[in-house]
TrEMBL record:
<dbReference type="InterPro" id="IPR015424">
    <property type="entry name" value="PyrdxlP-dep_Trfase"/>
</dbReference>
<keyword id="KW-0808">Transferase</keyword>
<dbReference type="Pfam" id="PF00202">
    <property type="entry name" value="Aminotran_3"/>
</dbReference>
<dbReference type="InterPro" id="IPR005814">
    <property type="entry name" value="Aminotrans_3"/>
</dbReference>
<dbReference type="GO" id="GO:0004015">
    <property type="term" value="F:adenosylmethionine-8-amino-7-oxononanoate transaminase activity"/>
</dbReference>
<keyword id="KW-0663">Pyridoxal phosphate</keyword>
<keyword id="KW-0032">Aminotransferase</keyword>
<dbReference type="GO" id="GO:0009102">
    <property type="term" value="P:biotin biosynthetic process"/>
</dbReference>
<protein>
    <submittedName>
        <fullName>Uncharacterized protein</fullName>
    </submittedName>
</protein>
<dbReference type="InterPro" id="IPR015422">
    <property type="entry name" value="PyrdxlP-dep_Trfase_small"/>
</dbReference>
<dbReference type="GO" id="GO:0030170">
    <property type="term" value="F:pyridoxal phosphate binding"/>
</dbReference>
<dbReference type="InterPro" id="IPR015421">
    <property type="entry name" value="PyrdxlP-dep_Trfase_major"/>
</dbReference>
């Protein structure tokens, strides 16, 4: 989303809990979900994974996402990334780097 890209499918795992507990998830656009949707509730698209849905892991993920939002970590990573890029470009221009 940072680059104006809207993916059809997103997978996530360890990072969602910062590695404290195992958890993974798959998110899809509504159009993809609807293409697989069955006619009744139990015939819907179901994807089961090894580390999906454990209550403790989900609680950790929610807390982790709250920290990411409150501390504006996405915005901060953009700022730090730009700073790092500028510094690397300076190094690239240095005569000792070829």
């Amino acid at each position: 989303m940072h680059e104006e890209v809207k993916p059809d499918i997103i997978t996530m795992a360890k990072g969602i809990t910062s590695g404290y507990l195992p958890l993974s998830a798959t998110c899809v656009k509504r159009e993809i979900y609807e293409a697989y949707a069955g006619e009744d509730t139990y015939d819907r698209l179901r994807h089961v994974n090894t580390f999906g849905g454990h209550p403790a892991s989900c609680a950790v993920a929610l807390a982790n996402l709250e920290i990411m939002e409150n501390e504006k970590l996405v915005e901060r990573s953009d700022t730090l990334g730009q700073d790092m890029l500028e510094r690397l470009q300076e190094l690239k221009r240095a005569s000792i780097c070829r």
